[in-house]
Amino acid sequence: MLEIKNLHARIVEDGTEIIRGLNLTVKAGEVAAIMGPNGSGKSTLSYILAGREDYEVTEGDILYNGESILEMDPAERAAAGIFLAFQYPMEIPGVATMEFLKVAMNAQRKARDEEPLKIPELLKRVKEAAGSLNMDMAMLKRPLNVGFSGGEKKRAEILQMKLLEPKLCVLDETDSGLDIDALKIVADGVNALRSPDRAIVVITHYQRLLEYIVPDSVHVLYRGQVIKSGDKSLAVELEENGYAGIIEEAA
Amino acid sequence: MPAVQDTIDRVRKIDVDQYKYGFETEIEMDKAPKGLSEDTIRFISAKKNEPQWMLDWRLEAYRRWVTLQEPTWARVNYPKIDFQDIHYYAAPKSTPGPTSLAEVDPELLKVYEKLGIPLREQEILAGVQKPADSELDEANDNVYKSGRVAVDAVFDSVSVVTTFKKELAEAGVIFCSISEAIREHPDLVKKYLGSVVPTSDNYYATLNSAVFTDGSFVFVPKGVRCPMELSTYFRINEKNTGQFERTLIIAEEGAYVSYLEGCTAPQRDENQLHAAVVELIALDDAEIKYSTVQNWYPGDAQGKGGIYNFVTKRGDCRGDRSKISWTQVETGSAITWKYPSCILRGDDSRGEFYSIAVSNGHQQVDSGTKMIHLGKNTSSRIISKGIAAGFSQNTYRGQVSAHRKASNARNFTQCDSLLIGEDCGAHTVPYIEAKNSTAQFEHEATTSKISEDQLFYVMQRGIPEEEAIALIVNGFVKEVIQELPMEFAVEAQKLIGISLEGSVG
Lengths: 251, 505
Description:
The complex is a heterodimer. Chain A has helices at 42-50, 74-79, 97-111, 119-132, 150-164, 180-192, 208-212, 232-241, 244-250, and strands at residues 2-11, 17-26, 31-35, 55-64, 67-68, 82-85, 168-172, 199-204, 217-222, 225-230. By secondary structure, chain A is an alpha/beta fold. Chain A has one domain: 3-Layer(aba) Sandwich (Rossmann fold). In chain A, helix 5 (150-164) packs parallel to helix 6. Chain B has one domain. The A-B interface holds A 50-54, 73-75, 77-79, 83-84, 86, 89-96, 98-100, 102-104, 107-108, 111, 119, 122-123, 141, 143, 160, 164 and B 137-141, 451-454, 456-465, 467-468, 471-472, 474-479. Chain B: One of its GO terms (biological process) is iron-sulfur cluster assembly. Chain B: It comes from Mesorhizobium alhagi CCNWXJ12-2.
């Protein structure tokens, strides 16, 4: 589903190269974890997948269902089924969460030439999804992410992910700032989305989240490259021994 | 809402320089020759069958006007206006004052048909009611739950049709064109006209007093709550024509009225002048709510053409416990010079000003309000949201003052500016003056840019860039949109989105 080939990318503003020849393949139905020390390029990778303009791809390609997405803007990629759950979701003052959900869902439907959702249907879907994440409907009347706690923000991200039904989900440090209860709820939400036709990329610093979202593959990112790949035991090994050994091994 | 959606879709396909109301209507016009002189004024007055006192009033204003200088203090630049190169009167020939829709020139009705937004005049004029069964839902999808709206349509210099007159008359409300009011209700007009904005007030108000051609007149008698929204729709159609409308609204003791005006003009290379005067008078316990959706032609992407909008609007809270509230959504005009103000004369009176001013392309906006606290325990509230995009300049200019006797005057002002892009400017110029030590004035101002982070976040959810900007901007202006009559709120939001198209990329 996702194929990243020899990707090189730099920050447009100052030319700093962050991704340096990254290769990664994630199949449909797979949950892939990307781990790595701070500054290894994890978040940058998520931004590049989503099409953020601050980064420029200088070499290589990103194929999604076999086709390059490099020429697509963020909205087009989203409509094609790529979703990024942000580490720091943005506040949108004055826009009720419910209104935002409606606009986003209908924008994607429009891009796929589908009719906008009727209000009762929309409400039904939102209620169901919010219920499964233990979210109060009253919260959805508040402006999106404004004044939300860290846990509420992450839950709102997962709510959007559920409702938009993406094919490729990228979760950027979704566990950061969550207490254990919130973490379980979020993980349950993600697990519920596991399906044979959907790929999930979990970016995380710690192994903790992977106890709840058990990955099929684990990839270690360092200095903009995948330096080691393995199964879930690799995450456990990292937790016990840290990154130093693997980095040395690769060097 | 299909008509509205269709229009929006069509507009989305065109560029910022293709103003969506830019059609011209081929209607035979009856015009005054170009130029301004006492003869022009006599011509206008005669055309309108005005009594002698009205002509005298106009001539006095004209004689004063010739001694005045055009003001230059606003932060706007434009070539000098040649006041002799303007037609001061233009009337559709075939409409000598219709009393019903059937008498209206069909060409004129076609104009309304083309408009759709923001007023849906065609339906309203035709007396078509919105389905009453449409439900308000949590997602705020549909707000057409409103009742009927009475409309007065002003086409260049003449008021062409006023709807629901009979029903309003039953409630005791007078809603007609100012020309008709001068003929039919001279005592009321004499008593109130010029009592808030005197003929000597300022350059453009004085000019308006001399040459005003039409406008609306509203009188709500003691204790009456006006049974429906009143609305006036202004359109400048004829070339080189100035539009000088005059609106006078009086709410007697305990009366209430909500009034909305909408404006559009065709697309032209040359600039057109619009200099209106609006006077509001609220007696004891009366309340007037005045909303504007201004969408005059803003000029093309290079800044050519567009309306010069020099407007004097002022409300007088003459009675105790009276309240006047201005709400404006300003998206059009090449130049806007406009400060809807409140004189808080009565004790415990209250003034409000809610404003959204959107500028794009080469538009220049210098707008704000004045809250003049004269009575005791008076209060006022100003919420101004300026949005600048393209190469536009957007200035908030406001004055809040407390007279020596205005004990316990209160004001809260909040001015927020939002910048889109690198080439526009937002400016805030507040004047605050308290001559009474018990006055409490608060002023808050912020300037922000739509952040790349926010835009990326919204787009990542599949919302295309221009829609994403419109969504963020509409969130920014929410507080003000909420003040608009329900049925206009959605259209105002869409108008803001349309105005900002082409502001990025």
